[in-house]
Amino acid sequence: MKLEVMPKQRAMEAEQREEAMEMSGLELWKHEKPASMVVFLPPPPPPPPLVPAAAAAAAAACGEEATLVPPLNFAMVDDGIFRSGFPAAANFRFLKSLNLRSIVYLCPEPYPETNAEFLAKNGIKLYQFGIEGRKLTTSELLLLQEPFVNIPDDKIREALKVVLDVRNQPLLIHCKRGKHRTGCVVGCLRKLQKWCLSSVFDEYQRFAAAKARSTDQRFMELFDISSLKHLTASHC
What we know:
Elements: H1 7-31, H2 52-66, E1 75-78, E2 81-84, H3 92-97, E3 102-105, H4 113-121, E4 125-128, H5 138-142, H6 153-164, E5 171-174, H7 180-192, H8 197-208, H9 214-222
Parallel strand pairs: 2-5, 3-4, 3-5
Antiparallel strand pairs: 1-2
Helix pairs in contact: 6-7, 7-8, 7-9
EC number: 3.6.1.52
InterPro entries: PFA-DSPs (IPR020428), Prot-tyrosine_phosphatase-like (IPR029021), Siw14-like (IPR004861), Tyr_Pase_AS (IPR016130), TYR_PHOSPHATASE_DUAL_dom (IPR020422)
Protein name: diphosphoinositol-polyphosphate diphosphatase
């Protein structure tokens, strides 16, 4: 027996199916994640231009970091002890960074006014031990002979007493080029520190280079350290 569906019933079923589909689409829309949105923000405004005073201060700060120039032949000898050639004005900022208390100056000429002003401004004490320098004459150069240089033992000894006094440190030892007079003081200090002579001479020659003098090395070899040994406890 074949059942026939009435037209009214068909219409009701169709209507119910449409409602079910609408509800299903609504539920799907509710659970569907919305697409991510990209928000484009405008770029931040540029910083305001520096006023002249601020620009000058910034330039000075950059320059202070960029111009630390050590003197010729500068090197650290030991904790709180440095050596070099004669400092120029361009080296003052570098020297200031060392927080020096003293300078041991080994030339007989008066200290230049500009350098003296720098020391006074920064509370640095000057100890001068004038040791005469000597250049080879033309005939000595032609004969490859080296002159006898009278290195004053007493001045080297007094300079070492200043160098080894911790109350004077940090300090800088310098002459004109940081080679011969400074090399002799440092070489005698190395003997106090119980360096072997070959190491003392190697260090001297590293700074003196082609201008190394056998008279300087002879002086260091013969220098009597016995009267200074009690000063070296902190450096040996």
